[in-house]
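Incident log, entry 3
Record: Superoxide dismutase (236 residues)
Problem: checksum mismatch between cached and fresh output.
Input:
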Amino acid sequence: MIQGTARTALKTGASRFLSTPRVFQRTKVTLPELDWDFGALEPHISGQINELHYTKHHQTYVNGLNTSVEKMSELTDLLAREPTPQVAREIIALQQNIKFHGGGYTNHCLFWKNLAPEKQGGGQLPEGPLKTAIEKQFGSLDQLKTLTNGKLAGVQGSGWAFIVKNLDNGGKLDVVQTYNQDTVTGNMVPLVAIDAWEHAYYLQYQNRKVDYFKAIWNVINWEEAAKRFESEKILS
Ligand SMILES: [Fe+2]
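Fresh output:
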């Protein structure tokens, strides 16, 4: 139990975090390396959009996640020394930041990896188990695109659509739509993630987001999706 002035010091602003020396350097998340140049997805997604999306928007989520996780670590330490409802409430409030920035970080990592220039195979669904599953469940790739585009068009505000392999349902494919930076976790293995935030298309498509949703299929990296489909684990 913490007594007297020591307890008071722990309760006063940032200084309360300074009493526990860090004994290791925390490794932070960073932007992933891209497999292509910013302009390589043109004309479907402009180089300007990709550059801003990657260097500004994704970087913001990277920074936000690192900051939030560091703060969580400090609060967890604090709770161990000062187990109070006040500290517990601070931890609960911080969870929203971790959910938002953590989702933004992981969703965009998925997004970059599941895009590929046409000259590198973008848009081409290779023969194999994924193609077989798509045709069995949806009839054709075009039907899956139509279903996904319908979910994307239904995003009111900002969100994502994911084509997933649902391990809770025998590994069947599913299309899941989320809001904000909510992501898919657990037994939903994401194969393809499509960003429906305005920052992903507005500079090029303005209010014609349906055209963006149609165009992006030309640069979907189905080879990566097939690799994820054939694995029981999330690869990135
Ligand atoms: Fe985005």
